[in-house]
Give the backbone structure.
Amino acid sequence: MIQRQVSEHERMAFLDEHFHYEVFMLGYSLKKIIDSKRPSNRNDEALALEGFLLHARNLNEFYYYQSSRKDYARATDYIDKLIWEKVRPKKTSEIKEQEIRINHELSHLTYNRIAGDGVEKQWDCGRLYNDYIMVTKCFLDNLPDKFFGDKLKGLKAELSANTSPFNRNNMPHGLSVATDISTPSLSDTACSTFPTI
């Protein structure tokens, strides 16, 4: 791929389309995980989990990694590196664990994949979602105004309006969650008993 300088307008358009999509799909995939549990369908659960983890990985790389490739988008393309590293939330234990597990269980076919249906295969998707929404809020709070398109303005308003990153009645972009989800931590959405991915 040709590496070139990306204009300010292109970076704004990128956030409004592609970054917005990643955040939206993280929430949408979580909703699909919850929906697939009623009644349980292991294949739908696995598909929703894989989508969720893919979008979580993309956001992780955007927020926490530098790249020598100019075509890889990073938060530091928008916020000064020293400022971002100072204000950005530290990686949570869930994010750190997710990085390792995604590489072993999703991105690559490794001998380190966890076999069976045990508790060690569970993913705390609710906590991971909350962690990424907190980093997203921080990114949007520190993003210069010149990079906000209409979708990003709407996303920031929605996230700012929620007292919790995950509100059972108001997921980002109006996604409704069934009323049996009772806490912002989403402990009942730990993604258990999935086929090895």
